[in-house]
Amino acid sequence: MDSSERYLHAAVAASAVVIREYSTSFSLAARMMPRRVRRHITSIYGLVRVADEIVDGACPTDPRAHLDALEVSVEAAMADGFSADLVVHAFAATARTTGFGTELTRPFFASMRADLTPAPHTPESLAAYIHGSAEVVGLMCLRAYLVGVAPSDYERLAPDALRLGAAFQKVNFLRDLTDDELRLGRAYLPELTQQAFDGALDDAAADLAAGRAGIAQLPRDVQRGVRAAADLYEELVRRLRSAGLDGARSGRIRVPAPAKASVLARSVLAPR
């Protein structure tokens, strides 16, 4: 292992620490990915989480300036292949290896920036926000799934990746109602009634079903990891339906550890 390889290894390990700190579900699902993909998925979500935390309160002073600086450093690293920030370095290495660039990162940072000035969304602004905050992340992951195996399948599989990314974000809106509305002052789904809540769940479930249809078209070695993530979100949809709007507003809806383990076990044992 030469010095550049050792540095990249440390960078990916730093991203893995970030993910383990913030999402046990994702950390477990990522471990189900083959080694050729695991470091790329870890690197993508490590950077996504850092940006998320900047706008969600981890940055005590001038989060916009820090978010702007992060975007500048990401673009510089994607251009020249190095960053002194380990999480940025890992992300840039993945972008360069898998073949995505600012066509995906700029919409992402635009959506993160929108969170700094929360305002009720229109259907158009919400669609743009979902695209930047989630759909493009799905496309980054798709690049990682296909690199070195079937990169020419990207355009054919992209619509399914978009639907799966959108589904995950729509479920997150509903499970995080209390934190988004009360602590962060955000209204992704303004004037939410029980009927609208049910409709939003139906919309997320439809996206999940559409995205799931594309999983079988992915390289075989990544299907179980992607299916595990989809299965966890389907379980969240089920629990949100059971809780209803009042339950969702009373606290974050979670999948308890034993249920999570059961869902992941079923994903592992499911036939390919």
Automatic annotation (TrEMBL):
Q: Its annotated pathway?
A: Carotenoid biosynthesis; phytoene biosynthesis
List the signal peptide residues: none
What does the record give under GO molecular function? geranylgeranyl diphosphate synthase activity
What domain of life does the native source organism fall in?
Bacteria
Q: Which Pfam families match?
A: SQS_PSY
**GO biological process per UniProt:** isoprenoid biosynthetic process
Transferase as UniProt keyword? yes
- What's this protein's name? Squalene/phytoene synthase family protein
Q: Which organism is it from?
A: Tsukamurella spumae
What's the source species' lineage?
Bacteria, Bacillati, Actinomycetota, Actinomycetes, Mycobacteriales
